[in-house]
Write a structure and sequence with these properties.
Layout (H helix, E strand, L loop, with lengths): L4 E4 L12 H10 L1 E3 L7 H8 L6 E4 L8 H6 L5 E4 L12 H7 L3 E4 L1 H20 L2 H11 L18 E5 L3 H9 L6 E5 L5 H7 L2 E2 L2 H7 L2 E4 L13 H5 L6 E4 L8 H10 L3 E4 L19 E3 L8 H19 L18
Parallel strand pairs: 1-2, 1-3, 3-4, 4-5, 6-7, 6-9, 7-8, 9-10, 10-11, 11-12
Helix pairs in contact: 5-7, 5-12
Length: 339
């Protein structure tokens, strides 16, 4: 039986983060891998694939887009696997429709990295609601053993009203992770049906109500024209004093000037894994706000979730080549609504 051929979109070391050692060895043992020596452009990747019969393409961060011309040149290629989250970058122009029309299976690792993001989000919910940052700073740097800067009995994650903005894959993971905490969960997502809301155990509500009633608000939206700047000064002003506001999704949903103004008032606890601009300049005033935690876009990191990405793609390859339904198929028909 002929071995399957897989075009890798980046040099092999780029996959070290998402391929566990056992999966690396399995991929090399099962397939003929066509691998560039350096990070390629689209044209260089096309040239590398020229004259070869390809069964699949597997990419990771930094790989170039694959326009319709690539797929037309390789009609035998039936599988695209991306070892990260969003695939929008790889499918410019009419490429998504071409993939749909020709039955090409797309798989990505969003549910692998999503676990890491969800875990980070829940950690931030606990840490900020309990004011751990302030308590640690007072004990270590100010010699204070508790002060009136933090409430003695704060509203922690236990029993909180939690607002989830978008019932995305990661938003749903967060809902599952906080279930043992006995939270009331509100969700804003115009595409969430009443049936799905009931199945998830959340209350589907308008954005304004979510902001006004939640003790903890967590953003899990995709970056689309609909979400662009959906939260400005008016929306931030609806949030109750002392609430926690977390964004581990995309920055453009929030007006940066309004966010800065609200942060400087000091009435909210804010955590940002994504910022605008990114990276945030060292002199940016957000950095000096004691009530703001800023992270360098690391919510998706973590060995467990990253290695799970490789497992998802390897399983997808197995299922596709064996003629079985691909469990982790990416819904390319809904690409415009996805992150």
């Amino acid at each position: 039986m002929n071995r399957r051929t897989i075009l890798m979109g980046m040099p092999w070391p780029a996959y070290d983060r998402t391929f566990a050692p056992a999966d690396q060895e399995r991929a090399k043992a099962l397939y003929d891998l066509v691998v560039p020596d350096t990070r390629p452009t689209t044209e260089e990747l096309l040239a590398l694939a020229d004259g070869r019969s390809l069964d699949a393409v597997v990419t990771v961060w930094g790989a170039p887009p694959l326009p319709v011309a690539f797929w037309e040149a390789h009609p035998e290629c039936r599988f695209f696997g991306h070892m990260a989250g969003s695939v929008k970058h790889f499918f410019p122009g009419d490429t998504p429709q071409y993939l749909l029309d020709h039955g090409i299976t797309v798989v990505c690792g969003q549910h692998g990295l999503g676990i890491n993001v969800a875990e980070c989000t829940v950690g931030l919910m606990i840490a900020l609601s309990r004011r751990w940052g302030t308590l640690w700073h007072e004990c270590r740097y100010e010699g204070i053993w508790g002060s009136d800067r933090t409430p003695y009995e704060p509203q922690t994650l236990l029993g909180a009203t939690v607002g989830i903005v978008s019932a995305s894959a990661i938003g749903r993971m967060v809902v599952e992770m906080i279930r043992p905490f006995g939270c009331r969960v509100l969700c804003y997502d115009p595409y969430l049906t009443d049936y799905e809301a009931g199945r998830l155990g959340v209350e589907s509500v308008p954005l304004e109500r979510l902001l006004a009633e939640s003790d903890i608000i967590s953003m899990h939206h995709p970056q689309t024209p609909e979400t662009d700047r959906m939260i400005g000064a008016r929306e931030l002003g609806l949030i109750r004093d002392g609430a926690v506001f977390i964004n581990t999704a995309r920055p453009r949903a929030i007006d940066p000037e309004a966010l800065l103004a609200e942060a400087q008032r000091g009435r909210l606890q804010i955590a940002l894994d994504v910022t605008e601009p990114e990276p945030l300049p060292s002199e940016h005033p957000l950095r000096s706000c004691e009530n703001v935690w800023i992270m360098p876009h690391r919510a998706g990191t973590g060995r467990h979730g990253s290695h799970r990405v490789g497992q998802i793609v390897m399983q997808g390859l197995d299922e596709c080549f064996q003629g079985r339904a691909v469990a982790a198929r990416y819904p390319i028909e809904r690409l415009s609504l996805m992150a």
